[in-house]
Structure prediction request, 356 residues.
Amino acid sequence: MHSFTHTQINTASMLRKDIRALSSYQVADARGMVKLDAMENPFTLPHSLRREWARVLMQVDINRYPDSQMQGLRKQIADRDRVIPEQVLLGNGSDEIIQMLLLATADSTVMAPAPSFAMYGLVCKWLRRDFFTMPLGNNFNLDAKQFLAACAREKVGMVFLACPNNPTGNLWDYETLQTICSQFNGLVVIDEAYMPFSSRQHTALLAPNVVILRTFSKLGWAGLRLGYLLGSVSFIHELNKVRMPYNINALTQASASFLLKHDDVFQAQAAVIRQQRQQLAAALTELPNVHVFPSEANFLLIRVADADRVFNGLKAQGILVKNMHGSDPALKQCLRITIGSETENAQLLSAMRSIL
Ligand SMILES: Cc1ncc(COP(=O)(O)O)c(C=O)c1O
Prediction:
């Protein structure tokens, strides 16, 4: 064990004061729990595919750096999304792309509706970008006129719109998004993390100032960390300048390329999750004092009489959900529940019944 013998090092003086004031991103310990807190796909890779996948991974030369340009994988994704490979940028999760976007854009104010995905505001803090939120209306609706007026007032240069939104689960009207995209004088990032479970996607809104962020995390590959951005050829070309040269590791590249050839497996799983979502929503609605918000994602936001009590009661029965109470004024007494397998959802329901 190395020990410092010279004068005591003052760690505080080496670090930014605002960084020291932050807390690191907390992930709950889920060992042994039914894990319904992080919007993961509950289904593991089918056995038949596992063998083939292992064979693919055996071919990867990990002594070499990965392919930095990822032409093949970008073409597979481009073909799937009906764009050209030059419109695709890959990230180590879409989180990394959020960081790239905030790193490369002008030093303007950033805005998102509230509540929405926490990473937008967090990365703004890291990069000392001003971040401003506008509260959503009733039923988590977004009013385009109000949003655009707030953008003008706060001199906003970039907005994040999660469609469907996390943690509310709803999808804003298409007209609202169209209006914002066509009238906002800056960059619009449409974050479609939950697209596999949504009734709509927004590729048609792509424009020089509109980009679309997607991820494979919710579709079933959260452990691989792969997200991507669709944008104009020139925008993607510029953003590539702040991408770490080998940001997608060789195992992820090989896995994604293989798994995309079996996209039907994951699309079928997403269909089961959508169906389970309807069933779980209907069953939860039947419980006393439970309000279930409409969802186009792989989770349900619910309001109960006492979120802490329900959260702790579920935890005591080995079920982990996300307690949103206290994270935003609009999320009072709210819990966010990821849709699990049929068995997990049944376990959740029976635990909820016993608690309520
Ligand atoms: C709206 C939204 N965007 C992006 C992400 C990040 O996903 P990943 O970094 O796994 O691609 C999430 C994850 O919860 C999310 O909810």
